[in-house]
Amino acid sequence: MTDQLSRIAAFCDGEHGGNPAGVWIGSALPDAIEMQHIAAEVDFSETAFAAPLNGGWRVRYFSPQTEVPFCGHATIALGAALALRNGDGQFDLTLNQAKITVSGQKGETTIAAALQSPPTQSLPAPEMALHQALDLFGYSLQDLDPRIPPAMVFAGAKHLLLCLKSRAKLRGMRYDFACGKRWMNSHEVQTIALIHAESDQVFQARNPFAAGGVYEDPATGAAAAALAGYLRDIAWPHGGAIELIQGEDMGCRSLIHAEIGPEPGSSIRISGHARLMTT
């Protein structure tokens, strides 16, 4: 098998937008130092590395600065790459801490892809961590939507979730990058998931990702899965599925679909479209 590095935008809006990911596929994974070097050279928020394992694929994810346990958009990009390489189908993935699946189906201009996330979990946000995060963005408790309380949410990675009452507050999101990185690293948080509920089933989202060396992620499948699991935990009237619009305020509109089963803690199906990038 020839080693291959692709650049694929995941969760694109038609032929535009989406979150770029690197996808490296080879006969055996490089060592961690080499994967980190490749991810830094690719310089996208994440690069997925995959090699055959027991009829499926061993997968690891690296941001430009560190390894991450799970990345949704890079998994969607990997599903697209595997479909282009091996044909449409479902693929078993072994991650560092979980086993999941991803599927890919080629279309005329994009590839439809879907993943089953790791199990979900949610916990109330610790009070001190919450106030520190609000200070980071210049928000107050009065800016938060009380229907969706602040929480630490999980679906393969840990995120702080803050739901804002105002779309304008979300649009005006700003923070000090160095302070954000220190806060995320000290609390072992992958991203801060900032959302606004446009309706019961449609959410606007932004995801600062300073922990990975990226100011903001234009599409975050792991955070979408964690949000979906949390909505299930609090009995939000999601109707079995939600749509997330992310990256709009970055000029990189991305669309994420999440299907929510009834069983607490069970995996979330995250789907979207991907496109092969020419540069």
CATH superfamily of the largest domain: Diaminopimelate Epimerase, Chain A, domain 1
Which CATH class of the largest domain? Alpha Beta
Distance between the termini: 23 Å
Mean pLDDT figure: 96
Beta-strand percentage?
35-45%
Structural class based on helices, strands and sheet pairing = alpha+beta
Put simply, the count of helices is: 6
Cα-atom radius of gyration: 17 Å
CATH topology description of the largest domain = Diaminopimelate Epimerase, Chain A, domain 1
Task: Describe this structure as you would to a colleague.
There is one protein chain. The chain is α+β, with helices and mostly antiparallel strands and 279 residues long. The protein folds into 2 domains: 113 residues, Diaminopimelate Epimerase, Chain A, domain 1 (Roll), CATH 3.10.310; 155 residues, Diaminopimelate Epimerase, Chain A, domain 1, CATH 3.10.310.10. Helix content is 23%, strand content 37%. The protein is built from 6 helices and 17 strands. Strands 1-2-3-4-6-7-8-17 form an 8-stranded mixed barrel. The mean pLDDT is 96.
